[in-house]
From TrEMBL:
Domain Pyridoxamine kinase/Phosphomethylpyrimidine kinase: 24-198, 251-337
Domain Thiaminase-2/PQQC: 369-572
InterPro entries: Haem_Oase-like_multi-hlx, HMP/HMP-P_kinase_dom, PM/HMP-P_kinase-1, Ribokinase-like, Thiaminase-2/PQQC
Entry-linked Pfam families: Phos_pyr_kin (PF08543), TENA_THI-4 (PF03070)
Entry's Gene Ontology molecular function annotations: hydroxymethylpyrimidine kinase activity; phosphomethylpyrimidine kinase activity
Name under which the protein is recorded: Pyridoxamine kinase/Phosphomethylpyrimidine kinase domain-containing protein
Superkingdom as given in the UniProt entry: Eukaryota
PANTHER family per the UniProt record, alphabetical: HYDROXYMETHYLPYRIMIDINE_PHOSPHOMETHYLPYRIMIDINE KINASE THI20-RELATED (PTHR20858:SF17), PHOSPHOMETHYLPYRIMIDINE KINASE (PTHR20858)
GO cellular component terms listed in the entry, alphabetical order: cytosol
C-alpha cells in the first residue's frame, strides 16, 4: 500500500470555454473552491469591462486535440461548458461527451452555462450555434444555468419576462422541454419586489401553462438569502449605509431551481447588490456549481432535489460574496473578487457594497437571539402604548443604575486607551451619558418618580449581572473587547428606535396618544452611526481578527445581547 493511499485526491474540474472573460474567472473560482482546474479553449476574445470587441474561434480539430489530451490523462470529476463559438465545435463536443459517458461509470458531472449574451448585452455566438446548443448538447448535460435572455433563446420565446410568474413559467418550460436533469434559471436580469415573492410564497403551489397547451403544477419553496422573509434586516445597518452613501438597492434577485422530474421549484431570494462589478457572474456561478458537485460525497447518479438545492445554495452564496467583495476596476462592468474564499481572514474587508461586514457577522451569528432582543414583547407593547405603566417605571429606575455603570465602562475605556483620539472618544461618550442621566431623571419625574426614589431603589439582578459583565470584560480585555461589551446596547437601542419608527409608519405602533412617545423619539436618533464606523468597523478592518479572536468577540456580543434581552424581561415581569 502506498504511503499516500489515504490521501484523498483533489477533485479535477475542467472548463471548456473562451478567454479572456470566462477561463480566468473559471480557474480562479475552481482554485478558490480547493479543486484542480484544467481548461480547453474554444475561442479567444478581445474584451474589457465595457464589452466584447471581437471573438476569434479556435478550430474545432484543435479544440478536440486539447480535450483528448487532458481527458486521456486525468478524467475530470466535473466539466463546466461555457462559450462555444461554432456549430461544428458544439457537435464535436456533444459526440465526444456522449461517447465518454457509457465508458466511465459514474462520471463526470456536466454543467452548461449557455453563454450567448454577455453581462454588457453583447451577442456572442451565431444563431446556428444557439440551435446546436439546444438540439445537440442540452440532452447530454446534467445542469444548465441560463440567464433570462439565454433561457428565452433556448425556449424559442420572443416574449419578455415582466414578472416572477413569467420566470417560473420559463424555468418550468426549459426543464420540461429538454432532457436536462436540473435547470437553474438566473434572475439577475429581473428586479423583483418583495411583495411579489411573498405573494408566491403564500400560494405554496402554482400551475403553469406551457407550450403546446400543456401545463405543470409545482410546489413553491422559498429560501431567503439574508435576514428573514419579512425583509426587515437590521435597520441600523441600512441607516448606516445611507449615512455614508453606500449603495443599497430595495430590489431582489430571484434564482430558480427546478428538476425535470421534480414537483418543486426552489426560489433563492437575495437583495440585489447595487454594483457594476458583475463581469463574469455566470461563469463564476457555473464553475462553483461544478466544484460543489465534484466535491459532493453522494454518488454522481444519485437523484436528489435536496442535494441539488444544497449545491445551488453554496454556489449562489459564493457568487454573492464575490460580488459584494469586489473592488471597482475599469470603466464598465468590473470583475468579481474570486478570492473571497481564499483570503486569509475570517471576515471580508469593507467594500462599498458591504461597508459593515463585522456588524453583519455579529448580528447574523445568532439572528434568533438578536430578534428576541430588539423585538422583545416589552418593545412591542411600548410601541403600541399598551405596556403597563408599572412595568415601564420599574424599567426606567433600573435604567438609571445601568447608565451609571455604562458611563464607568466608557471611563475605563479612556483609561485603557493609548491614543488621544480614543481617549477623547471614550471621554466624550462618558460625559454624554452623564448629561443623559440628568435628562433621564427629568424623564422619570414626568412619571412621578424623583431622584430620591430612584436612588433608593436597589439594583435588580438583571441590571447588576449586565453591568458587572461589561466591567469585567473591560477590565480583563482590550479596547475592542470593551467596544463589544457596550456595542449591543448602542446598536440594539438604535435598532429598536428605528424599528419602532417603521412600525409607526406601517400603523402597527403609534406615537400620538402613546405615553412612551418621548422615549421612542429619543432612541430613534443617529448616535449609533458614528459608533459603527468610528469604533467598530474601522478597528476590525485595520487589524483583522484571527478566527479565535473573532470567536471571542462574537461570544462577548452574544452574551451582551442575551443580557439586554433579560433586561427587557426584568422590566416586563417586574423582576428583582
Amino acid at each position: 500500500m502506498s504511503a499516500l493511499s489515504h490521501v484523498e485526491a483533489v477533485p479535477h474540474v475542467m472548463t471548456i470555454a473562451a478567454t479572456l472573460g470566462e477561463v480566468p474567472a473559471d480557474l480562479k473560482t475552481i482554485a478558490a473552491w480547493g479543486c484542480y482546474g484544467s481548461s480547453v479553449i474554444t475561442g479567444v476574445t478581445a474584451q474589457n469591462t465595457q464589452g466584447v470587441q471581437g471573438v476569434h474561434e479556435i478550430p474545432t480539430d484543435f479544440v478536440m486535440q486539447q480535450l483528448e489530451s487532458v481527458w486521456s490523462d486525468a478524467m475530470p470529476r466535473a466539466v463546466k461548458l461555457g462559450m462555444l463559438t461554432s456549430k461544428p465545435t458544439i457537435e464535436m463536443l456533444s459526440g465526444y461527451l456522449s461517447g465518454q459517458m457509457p465508458q466511465h461509470q459514474g462520471g463526470p458531472f456536466l454543467v452548461l452555462d449557455p453563454v450567448m449574451i454577455s453581462t454588457s448585452g453583447h451577442h456572442l455566438v451565431p444563431p446556428e450555434a444557439v440551435a446546436a446548443i439546444r438540439d445537440e448538447l442540452l440532452p447530454h448535460v446534467d445542469w444548465v444555468t441560463p440567464n433570462i435572455p439565454e433561457a428565452l433563446a433556448l425556449a424559442r420565446r420572443e416574449s419578455e419576462v415582466s414578472s416572477l410568474e413569467d420566470m417560473l413559467t420559463l424555468a418550468a418550460e426549459l426543464s420540461e422541454s429538454f432532457e436536462v436533469q436540473t435547470t437553474l434559471l438566473k434572475g439577475g436580469h429581473f428586479s423583483a419586489k418583495r411583495e411579489e415573492v411573498l405573494e408566491l410564497q403564500a400560494r405554496k403551489s402554482i400551475t403553469l401553462p406551457l407550450s403546446q397547451g400543456s401545463s405543470r403544477t409545482l410546489e413553491i419553496a422559498v429560501e431567503w438569502e439574508e435576514w428573514d422573509d419579512e425583509g426587515e434586516g437590521a435597520e441600523v445597518l441600512a441607516t448606516y449605509c445611507a449615512s455614508i452613501d453606500a449603495p443599497r438597492s430595495p430590489d431582489l434577485v430571484v434564482d430558480m431551481l427546478v428538476r425535470r422530474k421534480g414537483d418543486t421549484i426552489q426560489l433563492f431570494v437575495g437583495r440585489k447588490i447595487d454594483t457594476s462589478s458583475t463581469h463574469g457572474t455566470g461563469c463564476t456561478l457555473s464553475s462553483a456549481l461544478a466544484c460543489a458537485l465534484a466535491q459532493t460525497p453522494a454518488p454522481i447518479g444519485s437523484d436528489s432535489m435536496e442535494r441539488d438545492t444544497a449545491v445551488a445554495r453554496k454556489a449562489i452564496n459564493y457568487v454573492r460574496s464575490a460580488i459584494s467583495g469586489a473592488y471597482p476596476l475599469g470603466k464598465g462592468h468590473g470583475p468579481l473578487n474570486h478570492a473571497v474564499l481564499t483570503a486569509p481572514r475570517p471576515l471580508p474587508s469593507p467594500t462599498p457594497a458591504n461597508p459593515h461586514p463585522f456588524m453583519t457577522h455579529l448580528i447574523q451569528s445568532d439572528l434568533g437571539l438578536w430578534k428576541s432582543y430588539v423585538k422583545h414583547p416589552f418593545v412591542v407593547q411600548l410601541g403600541q402604548g399598551t405596556l403597563p405603566r408599572e412595568c415601564f417605571e420599574h424599567y426606567i429606575k433600573q435604567d438609571y443604575h445601568y447608565l451609571r455603570h455604562y458611563a464607568r465602562a466608557h471611563a475605563l475605556g479612556a483609561y485603557k486607551s493609548s491614543t488621544f483620539e480614543d481617549i477623547e472618544a471614550f471621554t466624550d461618550i462618558a460625559k454624554h451619558i452623564a448629561r443623559e442621566s440628568t435628562m433621564h431623571v427629568g424623564f422619570c419625574e414626568s412619571f412621578g418618580i424623583g431622584l430620591p426614589e430612584i436612588s433608593a431603589t436597589p439594583e435588580a439582578a438583571a441590571c447588576a449581572a449586565y453591568a458587572r459583565y461589561i466591567l469585567d470584560v473591560g477590565g480583563q480585555g482590550d479596547i475592542l473587547d470593551l467596544y463589544m461589551a457596550v456595542a449591543s446596547c448602542l446598536i440594539g437601542y438604535g435598532e429598536v428606535g428605528l424599528w419602532l419608527r417603521k412600525e409607526v409608519d406601517a400603523g402597527r405602533a403609534k406615537l400620538e396618544g402613546n405615553p412612551y412617545k418621548r422615549w421612542i423619539e429619543d432612541y430613534s436618533g443617529p448616535d449609533f452611526i458614528g459608533a459603527v464606523n468610528r469604533g467598530i468597523e474601522r478597528r476590525v478592518a485595520a487589524d483583522p481578527p484571527s478566527p479565535e479572536r473573532l470567536a471571542r468577540l462574537t461570544a462577548i456580543w452574544q452574551e451582551c445581547v442575551r443580557l439586554e434581552r433579560d433586561f427587557w424581561d426584568m422590566g416586563l415581569k417586574r423582576l428583582w
